From TrEMBL:
<dbReference type="GO" id="GO:0034599">
    <property type="term" value="P:cellular response to oxidative stress"/>
</dbReference>
<dbReference type="InterPro" id="IPR039261">
    <property type="entry name" value="FNR_nucleotide-bd"/>
</dbReference>
<dbReference type="InterPro" id="IPR017927">
    <property type="entry name" value="FAD-bd_FR_type"/>
</dbReference>
<dbReference type="InterPro" id="IPR001433">
    <property type="entry name" value="OxRdtase_FAD/NAD-bd"/>
</dbReference>
<dbReference type="InterPro" id="IPR001709">
    <property type="entry name" value="Flavoprot_Pyr_Nucl_cyt_Rdtase"/>
</dbReference>
<dbReference type="Pfam" id="PF00175">
    <property type="entry name" value="NAD_binding_1"/>
</dbReference>
<dbReference type="InterPro" id="IPR033892">
    <property type="entry name" value="FNR_bac"/>
</dbReference>
<keyword id="KW-0547">Nucleotide-binding</keyword>
<dbReference type="InterPro" id="IPR008333">
    <property type="entry name" value="Cbr1-like_FAD-bd_dom"/>
</dbReference>
<comment type="similarity">
    <text>Belongs to the ferredoxin--NADP reductase type 1 family.</text>
</comment>
<dbReference type="InterPro" id="IPR051930">
    <property type="entry name" value="FNR_type-1"/>
</dbReference>
<dbReference type="GO" id="GO:0042167">
    <property type="term" value="P:heme catabolic process"/>
</dbReference>
<dbReference type="InterPro" id="IPR017938">
    <property type="entry name" value="Riboflavin_synthase-like_b-brl"/>
</dbReference>
<protein>
    <recommendedName>
        <fullName>ferredoxin--NADP(+) reductase</fullName>
        <ecNumber>1.18.1.2</ecNumber>
    </recommendedName>
</protein>
<dbReference type="GO" id="GO:0004324">
    <property type="term" value="F:ferredoxin-NADP+ reductase activity"/>
</dbReference>
<dbReference type="GO" id="GO:0000166">
    <property type="term" value="F:nucleotide binding"/>
</dbReference>
<dbReference type="Pfam" id="PF00970">
    <property type="entry name" value="FAD_binding_6"/>
</dbReference>
Length: 264
C-alpha cells in the first residue's frame, strides 16, 4: 500500500467496485476495530494482499487500502482498522454497523506475499508488524502452505499499550488449527509504552541489541531468512535499515530477505 493512498480523496467510477454488506463489527479499543463483509465470487486474492474499500461521503466515493485479515479460503472478508482522528474515511468507517454497505474494488493489490520469494529457500519466516500492520500476517498464518514451507515462524507484534494488542486469542486459535505438529512458531508481543513489559523497546533497537533474536532463540541468517515488515512507515524504514546492517538484503525480483509494506 503506497503513501499515494493516504492523501487520497478520490472520486472514482463505481463500476470498478462491487457493493458488499457488512456482516460483523468488533471493537478492540477506542480507536481499533475490525469488520467482516460479504465476499463476491470474483474477488480472489493471495494472503498478504490488500483490497481497496470505498465509502460514499456526500456524493463522492472515498477509497482506502486495507490488507485482508481473512484467509484466501474464507467465504467472507475481514479487515482491521484504526480510527484516524479527523480522517475523511475512518471517522465515517468507525460508525459502521451490521447491514451497512461498502464498496469493494474488484481486484486485489500488493506484493507482500510469500510467493515473491525465490531465494533464499524458505526456512525461517519473521513477520514484523506494528499496529494494524498485523492484518496481512493473520491472513498468511491461515494458509496451510505457510506452515508447510517454513520450519520456524516468528510473529512479532509491536503496539503502544497492552489494550492495543488485538487478535491475540485469534492467533492462539490459528496456531491450534493450522500448526499441528509444527514446533517452530513463536509469538512475541512488544508493548513500547509499558516499561514493565518483557519487550518494550522499538523493533530497530531490539534488532540492534540482539534482544529479539535472543527472545526467539534464533539468529537472522541471510542464507535462510525471509522477513516481512508491515505497519508504521517510519518503523518500516528504520527496521529495514537495522536489518540491512545485519547483512540482510531487500527482496528484489524474487531474491533477498526483506519484503515491506507501509500501512499508511
Ligand atoms: P504507531 O504510532 O504506529 O505505534 C504502533 C507501534 O509502532 C508502537 O509500538 C510504536 O512504538 C511503534 N513505532 C512507531 N514508530 C516506530 C519506529 N520508527 N520504529 C519502530 N517502531 C515504531 O501506532 P498506531 O496506533 O498503529 O498508529 C498511530 C497513528 O498512525 C495514528 O494516529 C493514526 O492516525 C496513524 N495511522 C494511520 C493509518 C491510516 O491512515 N490508514 C493506519 C494506521 C495508523 P512507540 O510507542 O515507541 O511509538
Amino acid at each position: 500500500m503506497s503513501t499515494v493512498y493516504r492523501a487520497m480523496f478520490e472520486i472514482m467510477s463505481v463500476d470498478k467496485f462491487s457493493l458488499e454488506k457488512v456482516l460483523s463489527v468488533h471493537r478492540w479499543s477506542d480507536n481499533l476495530f475490525s469488520f467482516t463483509m460479504t465476499r463476491p465470487a470474483h474477488f480472489k486474492f493471495t494472503a498478504g494482499q490488500f483490497a481497496r474499500i470505498g465509502l460514499k461521503v456526500a456524493d463522492d466515493l472515498v477509497v482506502r487500502a486495507y490488507s485482508v485479515v481473512s484467509s484466501p479460503y474464507d467465504e467472507t472478508l475481514e479487515f482491521f482498522s484504526i480510527v484516524v482522528p479527523d480522517g475523511a474515511f475512518t471517522s465515517q468507517l468507525q460508525h459502521l454497523k451490521v447491514g451497512d454497505e461498502l464498496y469493494l474494488e474488484k481486484v486485489p493489490y500488493g506484493f507482500l506475499t510469500l510467493a515473491r520469494y525465490q531465494a533464499p529457500a524458505p526456512k525461517d519466516l519473521w513477520l514484523l508488524a506494528t499496529g494494524t500492520g498485523l492484518a496481512p500476517f493473520i491472513s498468511m498464518l491461515q494458509d496451510f502452505e505457510t506452515w508447510q514451507k517454513y520450519q520456524n515462524i516468528h510473529l512479532i507484534y509491536s503496539v503502544r499499550t497492552a489494550a492495543e494488542l488485538a487478535y491475540v486469542d485469534r492467533i492462539t486459535e490459528i496456531v491450534e488449527l493450522f500448526a499441528e505438529g509444527h514446533e517452530g512458531f513463536k509469538f512475541v508481543p512488544i508493548i513500547t509504552r509499558d516499561p514493565q513489559a518483557e519487550l518494550h523497546d522499538r523493533l530497530p533497537v531490539l534488532i540492534e541489541n540482539g534482544q529479539l533474536e535472543k527472545t526467539v532463540g534464533l539468529d537472522f541468517d541471510p542464507a535462510s531468512t525471509h522477513i516481512m515488515l508491515c505497519g508504521n512507515p517510519q518503523m518500516v524504514e528504520d527496521t529495514r535499515d537495522a536489518l540491512k546492517a545485519r547483512g540482510l538484503t531487500m527482496n528484489r525480483r524474487g531474491e533477498g530477505n526483506i519484503a515491506v509494506e507501509n500501512y499508511w
